[in-house]
Amino acid sequence: MKGQAMKTKHLKIAAFSALAALVPISLAEIVTEEIRYLHDGVELKGLMVYDSEAEGRRPGVLVVHEWWGRGPYAQKRARMLAEQGFVAFALDMYGAGVLVDSPAEARTLATPFYADRPLMRDRAIAGLNVLLGSERVDPERVAAIGYCFGGTVVLEMARAGAPLAAVVCYHGGLTGPHPMREGAFAGTVAVFNGAADPMVNHDDKKAFVEEMHKAKADFIFIDYAGALHSFTNPEADGLGMDGVGYDKKADERSWRHTLDLFGEVFAAGNRDRND
Questions:
Q1: Confidence band, pLDDT 50/70/90 cuts, at residue 42
Q2: Is residue 1 part of a domain?
Q3: Euclidean distance between CA atoms 248 and 231, whole angstroms
Q4: What are the pLDDT digits (tens) for 245-271?
């Protein structure tokens, strides 16, 4: 009887240990800090998002918003990254408090950056410098992600040779007037594209792949079957724009692919420093 009691006790301990492995001992507190910074005389307002319980310097991820401005969607993605243990900074490309909800207004805000790629790159680098300057961030393990307009921005950062382990472009414009030079970018370039996105045609895809090959870049290009433009944003279906729509499967797959990539490139950074 005593042996049976001991066996039952051991089973209870094992069950508790298994449960403890699934449930954190203390719930993480995700903190959002508003940070104001300047670029070329323009006041910008970004959000630093992190888990206050995380110890030591953590990998950092820059989040570049869609053409609407730095709104709730970018903040949502920054929080998702913080919940994974990263320090995320949702930068501001337009100016403090600038947020629009009509395609015409968004086009007006984004067009100057498409027309002036050095401005686009420099404005994004200003945000990157804020992230790199955080005492919570390991500056050797930093990446950038961007959506639509933001996807184009992170590709321009890679072309400019920004000090990033990876850039991830979700349903962004792929081409630019200043192709990547060989050896310009040491990180990985990932493009997650909707195969049915009418805003990225076959010629754009072909030109991008050729550009990456010529630059001898490490790159990933994934077309998600049936996915339209803005396939990662659940609000896309309500925009009433042709060729734009949410795709849950493509959204979830692209997020998993992103986290897998970060696990790879940030682990490589650790190995490099320990050698």
A1: very high
A2: no
A3: 8
A4: 999 999 999 999 999 999 999 996 554
